[in-house]
Amino acid sequence: MCSTMRSNIVSNLAQSLQNIVMQKIPSMEKFNDVVFHQMVPTPEKLPKIVGIELVASVPPVFSSTVTGPTLFSKLVSADVNHAVRKYEERKEQVLKAQTDKVNQSNSEANKYVFINSLCLD
After folding, report:
1. Which string of DSSP letters, residue by residue, matches the chain?
2. Residue 119 covered by a domain
3. Which domain, by its residues, includes 29?
4. Are residues 32 and 76 part of one domain?
5. Burial level of 27, CB count in 10 A (0-12/13-18/19+)?
6. 10-residue block means of pLDDT along the chain (121 residues)?
7. Does residue 25 lie within any of the structural domains?
8. Distance, CA of 77 to CA of 30 (rounded, Å)
9. In angstroms, rounded to a whole number, what is the distance separating the alpha carbons of residues 70 and 81?
10. pLDDT at 16 (0 to 100)
11. Is 43 inside any structural domain?
């Protein structure tokens, strides 16, 4: 019973779809004749597309007179820039002093290792 009901539903759906298509065929044929009344040309008959240069390239000019002040000059005051430079200088001095101490300690350690490797005891 269930399979016959399904087949009836499917046949009813197919019949309604066929009715809709049959109703729309005349209008679609008319639409096709109106819109597509010209033949589509083959690719060989189409005109070649020629590229054009829209803008000319200009090499960048890097000059302080042209570029002006740096981008962040208005955001960071001169006092802050001065303080940063002082900080960087002081940091370099401290780093150099510590590096010198490490190098001196390494050279003394190398002397001690060298003397012990001679086995003079």
Report:
1. -HHHHHHHHHHHHHHHHHHHHHHHHHHHHHHHHHHT-SPPPPTTTSPPPPP---S--------HHHH-S-TTTTTS-HHHHHHHHHHHHHHHHHHHHHHHHHHHHHHHHHHHHHHHHTT--
2. yes
3. 1-38
4. no
5. exposed
6. 78 92 89 72 86 81 63 74 91 96 89 68 51
7. yes
8. 76
9. 12
10. 93
11. no
Structure tokens at 84: 């940063």
| Inside any domain, residue 7 | yes
Q: Which residue has the tokens 């042209």?
A: 66
Domain count, the chain: 2
The size of the chain, in residues, is 121
> Which pLDDT score, from 0 to 100, does residue 101 have?
94
Structure tokens at 102: 């490490």
Residue 3 has a pLDDT of 73
Quote the pTM value: 0.35
d(CA 121, CA 118): 9
Residue with token string 């065929």: 25
- Between CA 75 and CA 69 the distance in angstroms is 12
* DSSP-derived secondary structure for 1-28: -HHHHHHHHHHHHHHHHHHHHHHHHHHH
